[in-house]
Amino acid sequence: GQQLNQSPxxxxxxxxxxxxxxxxxxxxxxxxxxxxxxPGEGPVLLIALYKAGELTSNGRLTAxxxxxxxxxxxxxxxxxxSDVGIYFCAGLVVSANDxxxxxxxxxxxxx
Amino acid sequence: DTEVxxxxxxxxxxxxxxxSLKCEQHMGHRAMYWYKQKAKKPPxxxxxxxxxxxxxxxxxxxxxxxECPNSSLLNLHLHALQPEDSALYLCASSRRTxxxxxExxxxxxxxxxxx
Lengths: 111, 115
What we know:
The structure holds 2 protein chains of 2 kinds. By secondary structure, chain A is an all-beta fold. Chain A has strands spanning about 5, 10-15, 20-25, 30-35, 45-50, 55-60, 60-65, 70-75, 85-90, 100, 105-110. Chain A contains no helices and 11 strands. In chain A, the strands form 2 sheets. In chain A, strands 2, 4, 5, 9, 10 and 11 form a 6-stranded mixed β-sheet that branches. A 5-stranded antiparallel β-sheet of chain A has the order 1-3-8-7-6, with no helix packed on it. Chain A is globular. Chain B contains no helices and 11 strands. The model of chain B has no long low-confidence stretch (mean pLDDT about 95). The interface of A and B includes residues 43, 90, 92 and 97 of A.
C-alpha cells in the first residue's frame, strides 16, 4: 500500500524561527492534508491541497502540493509557543477511506 | 459549523464491562469514521460508514461493534476489551467517501483506559 515518509521526526526550534517539514511517497495522491494534534486532542485540519503545484496559505502556514503529486511540504513562519504539537501529513486517493498518514513531526518551540 | 463532538472525553473500564463511545456531527456529512490512536503514532483506521452503512472494517476484533443510527450519529460499542485496547479513539467525518474536496474532520477523541 501507499506509504508516506514524513520528515523530520522531531524539531526543536527557538521562538521566531521558521519551520519546514515534508512528506514524500512512492505513490500518487489526489489530495494532501496537513493536520496539527495537541496532546490528548484530535487532529485539527490546517490546510487542504487539491491540485498539483497548488500553494496555499493559512496565516503563518504555507503548504504546497508537489508537481509530481507524490510529495507536499508545510512551512510555518515566525514560530510561536502555541505552534507546539505533532503535525501529520495525510494523502488521499479518490476514496477517502484510502487516506494515509505520515508518522508525524513533533515540534517543540523554545520561548 | 465544522465541529465533530465525542463523548465521553475519558473512559475507564474493566475487561468485563460494556460501554459505548458516541460521536455526532451536524455538517451534513455522509461518511463517518472510527480511528484508534496509540501514543506517538498516527491514527489507524478501524471502520468507515458511508450513507449510514458500514463500508470498511479494517479487520477489527468483534469486541468493537460500530453502529450508525442516523446520518449525524456514530457509536462504538465496547465489550470484553483487553488492556492493549487502551488508546485515544477518534471519530471523523467527511462529505462522502470518494471524490474531491473530501477532507476528514476529527473530533476531540475519547481517552480509553482498560484495566
